[in-house]
Amino acid sequence: MKTFDLCKEYCIGCGLCKSELHADMKKNAKGFWFPNLQNNEKTERFLEHVCPIADNCLNEQNIDIWGPYIHAYAGYSTDVSIRKKASSGGVLTGIALYLLESGKVDGIIQVTADKENPVETVVQVSTTAEQVLACCGSRYSISSPWLHLSECMEPGKTYAAIGKPCDIRAVRRLQAYNDSYQPIKYLLSFFCAGLPSKDANAKLLATLGCKEKACKSLTYRGNGWPGTVTAIDEEKNTYQMEYSQAWGGILGRDIHPYCRICFDGIGECADIACGDGWYMDVQGNPDFTEHPGRNVIFSRTQIGEELLREAKENEKISLSDWENIGALRKIQNYQYTRKATMRAKKLAYRILLRKFPEYDKSLLKNYATMVPVKKRMKIFLGTAKRIVQKRI
């Protein structure tokens, strides 16, 4: 069963196999969740229709490398404290607050830091502004938001869900497979470059000089933009590191195997997706010095477009047109390059007999024309080298 083998190889641990198939979940050596599945027709059918790994990312609208969208905006939370605390502009927090205050939903299904172990995450259904604000900011640690999704939802109530692009893709597919999840009215996502492992987080704390067992608080970004990584131990000692060093030197070097070949890091299945809307310096490159936070925002569905406009009208967020889509090639260079070079990665995986998702060939071919041959060759050779060295 081809789908079963592929999903088993690259399971991202969203948790739906536990929620829907009642599969036992375990953690591997890197701390990533994976299910113990029965290889039968029921499982195969579920994976084909729901698992994000099995999706070929084909959409008649997503010829654009930034995926399907109605409108692109620049924006941020109108609440100065949220804008500062958030990883970038705080737009998703502002939208979540509006959804609750307006009564459009009864709860926001989202992840937050585990109070007992801030390196880990837990899922909560936020029903108050205080709970939403407690979830503000990125978590660069392992999360499996849908482990208990069916239990999170109460009959007669409606919800919004916030998650990584793969998590949102899973719920979008689940809704088409099982009508009982239609009460999740809004799907919100953020740009993602990968899910760091348990080891990566342990190395981060060790480099900071904070003992993992003594760590009581760990924020990966925020309190500025891009902000700093900040750990606080039980004696209230503070340890900090520049975000660029933390991600580029530690966290981003040890991520989930699927993240290296993920075709959607920009929330293409969400109603609204947000990323860092970096400003440009005089040379036309992203400026990573401290600024007030700003999001680039895509409304990907009519539902998302209407929600953004309502949140703006109710003064929860500030919105303006994103005037230069072409600039995103540099501002979000990683996201642009990962899609444009995916065909080269696929070739390396296939030549070296590694499993690879069944992405739509026409999309891969189309996106490959957006980067020079030299760049594609570099990615191919680098990927092949890492496979041979068993680094991926």
Can you offer a commentary on this structure?
This protein has two domains: 299 residues, no CATH class; 52 residues, no CATH class. The protein is built from 16 helices and 15 strands. The mean pLDDT is 95. The protein is α+β, with helices and mostly antiparallel strands and 392 residues long. The strands form four sheets. Strands 5-4-6-7-11-14-3-15 form an eight-stranded mixed beta sheet. The protein has a three-stranded antiparallel beta sheet with strand order 8-9-10. It has a two-stranded antiparallel sheet with strand order 1-2. Helix 14 packs parallel to helix 16. The longest helix is centred in the last third of the chain and has 16 residues.
